[in-house]
Structures are given as structure tokens and as C-alpha cells.
Amino acid sequence: FRPKVLSGRRVLVTAGPTFEPIDPVRGLTNRSSGKMGFALARAAQQAGADVRLIAGPVALATPWGVDRVDVETAQQMHDAVMQSVADYDVFISVAAVADWRVAQVSDHKIKKTAAQAVPSFSFIENPDILATVARLPNAPYCVGFAAESDDLETNGEQKRIKKNVPLLIGNLGPATFGRDENEVVLFDASGATRLPRATKDELAGKLIAEIARRLPDASLI
Ligand code: C5P
């Protein structure tokens, strides 16, 4: 039995890495597996929410009852989020969005030739999806994630303020990518709360409860 703490709520989740092409066969990505975001989408659906999951390239099954949109690049993820966000009350930004993309994507495979020097690339910054959503006039309740390699206690709260979100969830330790377990600290206006180490599925249920009780009008539903 799980209480339906999100019934009547609409929840938008981003998950997984993004893939930024270099040429038709190559690209840049990161080690995000999407497990935490998919677990949160599943837990939100089980808590009674209407859930849309915008996923980068991952090898995971769609949680039952969740509306999934697949994207590849940060720009596509940004566009899919911006098209959907007005219909959602909560935005949980779990995706490990690439900070940069290659400025000039080659339309043919870049050849390795003896005569030619190794290629070099220049980069442009991708949009910060979470910060963009958090700045919207009718922003949903925004939840950010942070994977910090050091001094999470200070950096987590700073990131929460910089991204202008009411709740930021910090992953303890850099070794969470791809694993089934995680340990997190919640940062909100009243301070930092550490949750005990658990599987991503167990944590997702707890995090959904933590999010639900912070929502505006939480007691009315
Ligand atoms: O700044 P940093 O990448 O550490 O912030 C992490 C948080 O911001 C995550 O919630 C992530 O989903 C979100 N983010 C985003 N768009 C970006 C970069 C990060 O939504 N371009």
C-alpha cells in the first residue's frame, strides 16, 4: 500500500544523459543511466500523479502508466520540456544534461587521414533547462538534482539558490552513476536533511513523499 500523495497532480520528469553529436556516427555523452529519474517517474505514477517522462538515450523500460517522450540532445530535451511544462504542477529535473555541444556538427563522418591533423572542436553552451523553467512566470514546483564531487553541504545549497528552486537533491559521492543504490541530501529553505543510503527505488518513494508534502496546497488534496 502506498498513499496516493500525488493524486490530481501532474508531474514532468527529465532523466538520463543527453547525446550531443559530433558527426553522423560520433558524439559526446555521459555516464547517467537514467535509473534515478525512471524510479522517480514510477514512484510519482504509483503515488497517483499523471506523469510525463522526457528521457535521453537510456536502456530502460518505460514505467507502467507513464507517458514517455524520447529525445537525444539537450536542445531537444529543452524543447520537449518547454512544450509540456505549462500543463504540469511539478518539474523534477533529474537528467544529466550536457553543458556544452559541438558548435559545428559535421554532416559527414570526419575521416582519419595521415595528412590531416587531429580534429579540434569548439563548443557552445546548452540551455539550462531547470533554470529556464524555474524562471517562468507560472513555474511549476521545481526540484533539481546535483552530483557534486566535493563539499556537497555548501555547494548543494548554493546550487539551490543559483537555480532558484525550492528543493534541490544532492547525490552524495560521485559513484552514483549507473548504480542501483544512492545516498542523498535534501536542501530546502529550512536547511539540509540527509536520507539513509537505499536503493534508487526505495529512495524514489521517499523523495516523492518529501516532494508531495512541500507542494503548495499539499493539505488540500
Ligand atoms: O549545474 P548542474 O548541471 O550541476 O545542475 C544540475 C541540475 O540542473 C539537475 O537538476 C539537471 O537536471 C539540471 N540541468 C538542466 N539543464 C542543464 C544543466 C543542468 O536542466 N543544461
Overall spatial form? globular
Name every ligand kind in the structure: cytidine-5'-monophosphate
How would a textbook summarize the main sheet? Answer: 8 strands, mixed
Termini, distance in Å?
Answer: 18 Å
SSE topology string: EEEHEEHEEEHEHEEEEEH
Protein name: Coenzyme A biosynthesis bifunctional protein CoaBC
Binding site for CTP: 99, 109, 127-130, 145, 159, 163
Family: In the C-terminal section; belongs to the PPC synthetase family.
Organism: Trinickia dinghuensis
Short description:
This protein is α/β, with parallel strands linked by helices and 221 residues long. The protein has helices at residues 35-46, 74-84, 129-134, 152-163, 200-214; strands spanning 10-15, 20-23, 26-28, 50-55, 67-70, 90-93, 100-102, 123-125, 141-147, 167-171, 181-182, 184-188, 191-194, 198-199.
Which helices and strands, and how do they pair?
Blueprint: E1 10-15, E2 20-23, E3 26-28, H1 35-46, E4 50-55, E5 67-70, H2 74-84, E6 90-93, E7 100-102, E8 123-125, H3 129-134, E9 141-147, H4 152-163, E10 167-171, E11 181-182, E12 184-188, E13 191-194, E14 198-199, H5 200-214
Helix pairs in contact: 1-5
Bound molecules: cytidine-5'-monophosphate.
